[in-house]
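for the record, two folds in this file. i put them one after another cuz i was lazy. first one right below, seq on top, structure tokens after. the second one comes after a little note so u can tell where it starts
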Amino acid sequence: MALEDQHPPNAHTSAPDPAPLTGDEVLPCGRPLSHVWEQARDARPRTDPHIASCAHCREAAEGLAALDAATQALRERQPTGWSALADRVLAVVRSEVRFGPVLPLDDPALDLRITENAAAKVLRRAADAVPGARAVSCRLKPAGKGTHVHVAMTLAAAPGRPLPAAAEDVRRSVVTAADRTLGMAVTNVDIRVIDVLLPQPGGA
């Protein structure tokens, strides 16, 4: 577990991460999907340098661009009824939108699997439930050839509490959520604290 600060003084020159909208998908890198799509459709130069260098953001933007182009093409054609239109849009979604890597759940007999994005969303929520902690990113990958999974998470932590204790609380919360909510066997959770979680205006 590495607890070193990854940001030198005055390194935070860009705007803070945008807050996701209600029901918004959050990518493994921590960016809301709606923000990535807004930036991808903006004709002006991008204001978020993270998106230009992030594989998760590029992959999501490419999938959404393909879906948007297909939907626009369908609108320009002769209407054939809502049912046919829905079927054609769903066909594009299945063929073009990429759901990312899939991971095994802890039931070898049934060979159940879940996408990394869906699992990461649950584990990020478990980390955020720990007072004084907020998940910045969450990555998962298989640990060996079985059904065990390795989790790597970065955090922003509130000052005033020892970081090892805060990280251990997050680790327990993540492992519990993986087991009880997902049915996933997590072998270890690597945590890095990379930022300071400052109080919000109004005392929240």
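(here's the note) second protein begins now
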Amino acid sequence: MAESLLNQSISPSSPVSVSVCDKYDAETIKNILKNQFSALGISENYFKNKKVVIKPNLVMKKSAEAAATTHPAMIEALSSLLCELGGHEIIIAESPGGIYSESNLKSIYKVCGIEEAAFKSGISLNFDTGFKEIKYPDGIVSKSYNIINPIADADIIINLCKLKSHSLTKMSCAVKNLFGVIPGVQKFEMHARFPNLPDFSAMLVDLCKCVCQMHEVIHIADAIVGMEGNGPTGGNPRFIGAIISSRNPYNLDLSAADLLGFDDAPLIKCAYERGFCPKSNAELAFTENSVFPQKINDFVMPDSVHHKNFFTIFPDIMGGNLVKILEPHPKINYKTCVGCGDCVRSCPVHTIDFVTIKNKRKAKIKRDKCIKCFCCQELCPHKAVYIVKNPILSILK
């Protein structure tokens, strides 16, 4: 049997493999992934007779061109490689935002181009909507998680994430992508349980380690075209030109953050404090075959994170009340809102209601109860949720 990855997945010394890739060509991507696997010490026999689950980012129904989801060419290339390497059973599994149902999964797979990619590759799509409670006594903020069945039952998991900006966690990559193993609307419950960013970040770091200790996991980032601005769904596509792989998700995220010019991503900070990754990209180990794209010096941040410098330094000023008054918060654009109710159903603390404006149903956020998780912005299919920033912030900054 090939060497187990379990004891290496959270090692700060675990290397990262970076390759330049400028197009979504399945054959090109397949060759890159094959070389990265070899450089990471993943032998050709590793996948033989194993049940392999590919966990992409399919946050909502978006075409590949929107850059909100894992590109189907990545699925096609990885699936072809896994079949070539002897994967016994290969399944694509994801719990997107909203209701975790067979009908919703069918729609997501089709719109995101995953259904066609799976058909071309001859692999399976998951429609099992059950889950298992997984105990995790080593968790700092959470001692157990409900995890969807295909992930819980896998031999090997491929965490095939999308590199994007994120309104809550600033960046979405390998660690954040594993939040998709929590079934459906239970993700909203996790937001309600951990309403502030430090605790929510700690929960995600716990969850990631739980999954990596439970199974052998390989992490791959689709960073050919990412998303900047109000990600993870409302931003704009941005060419990055890379594919990144590692056995350690925190190391991968650290490398990705450096590529985008981020130096204070909350999940990476939390992982470093736990000893799961180095403090800076300069301390990472990279495989000898790594080739780096040009770093981005003008990556557009989400509107919600520009306050971080001030509030990181003075989080408790005036008992924390100043933060509540001044921090960016979501608001509904009534001209764009169609009253579909997705934001109402996705709000973890039920602070969004319907109101009637000019005889039309619109959503309205009660600001006093809002926990600023930005789920409403993330899951609005019409980009009708925007971020309001207090003008005083520019002075305080």
